[in-house]
Amino acid sequence: GIQVEQSPPDLILQEGANSTLRCNFSDSVNNLQWFHQNPWGQLINLFYIPSGTKQNGRLSATTVATERYSLLYISSSQTTDSGVYFCAVESGANNLFFGTGTRLTVIP
Amino acid sequence: GAVVSQHPSWVICKSGTSVKIECRSLDFQATTMFWYRQFPKQSLMLMATSNEGSKATYEQGVEKDKFLINHASLTLSTLTVTSAHPEDSSFYICSASLSASGKKSQYFGPGTRLTVT
């Protein structure tokens, strides 16, 4: 199956700092989503972004499909941003393959 | 919109018993739902794809006789863990597929934490 790698695996930020999370995938995809899993386990949809750039408040994402990677930018981080960030890709059938995740801790 | 619920949110059961987990799409109809499991500090692994009115499609290595999936309506799918053992303890998450404006996204339930003693 398709391989999805995320980096860094762990990230600790001071509140107010900016960060970039990366997602590399091994094959062409027809869907890519970014999720935030909060400390209680709930997965929250952040972006549906198979290509191009989108912004939503302090978050933005860019996917370069031809080079098989996506980036998630978090600006002015807050403690509530803590949790695990996953990218997930869909190739062919409507199945999402999840990446390895980036665990973000924002300290006040 | 696009809210998915799961029940129960957590359950503790004794080894050898069966546990049923419900997944509901509250404000949309979902012909396809998915079941994932997540071990501590690991990623989500797809277990099976559930289609309304037909048999579920299981991923390689997932025992269909142990993890029974029923998709009885366009808003409800159930996962039954039969004869549970401690190694089945995990976080089980469902999702429902929604198509809108030419894109198909999955929306996730809050998860069910199963502990088998």
Structure commentary:
The complex is a heterodimer of chains A (about 110) and B (about 120). In chain A, the strands form 2 sheets. In chain A, strands 2, 4, 5, 9, 10 and 11 form a 6-stranded mixed beta sheet that branches. A 5-stranded antiparallel beta sheet of chain A has the order 1-3-8-7-6, with no helix packed on it. Chain A is globular. Chain A is mainly β. In chain A, a hairpin with a 5-residue loop joins strand 4 and strand 5. Chain A is about 0% helix and about 60% strand. By secondary structure, chain B is mainly β. In chain B, strand 5 and strand 6 form a beta hairpin. Chain B is globular, with a radius of gyration of 14 Å. Chains A and B meet through strand 4, strand 5, strand 9 and strand 10 of A and strand 4, strand 5, strand 9 and strand 10 of B.
What is the fold's blueprint, element by element?
The complex is a heterodimer of chains A (108) and B (117).
Chain A (H helix, E strand, L loop, with lengths): L3 E4 L2 E5 L4 E7 L5 E7 L5 E6 L3 E5 L2 E6 L4 E6 L8 E8 L5 E3 L3 E6 L1
Parallel strand pairs in A: 2-11
Antiparallel strand pairs in A: 1-3, 3-8, 4-5, 4-9, 6-7, 7-8, 9-10, 9-11
Chain B lengths: L3 E4 L2 E4 L5 E7 L6 E7 L5 E8 L5 E2 L8 E7 L2 E6 L8 E11 L2 E6 L3 E5 L1
Parallel strand pairs in B: 2-11
Antiparallel strand pairs in B: 1-3, 3-8, 4-5, 4-9, 5-6, 7-8, 9-10, 9-11
Q: Say how many strands of chain A there are.
A: 11
Helix content of chain B: under 10%
Largest interface: A-B, 22 and 24 residues
* Portion in beta strands of chain B: over 45%
Morphology of chain A = globular
Radius of gyration of chain A: 13 Å
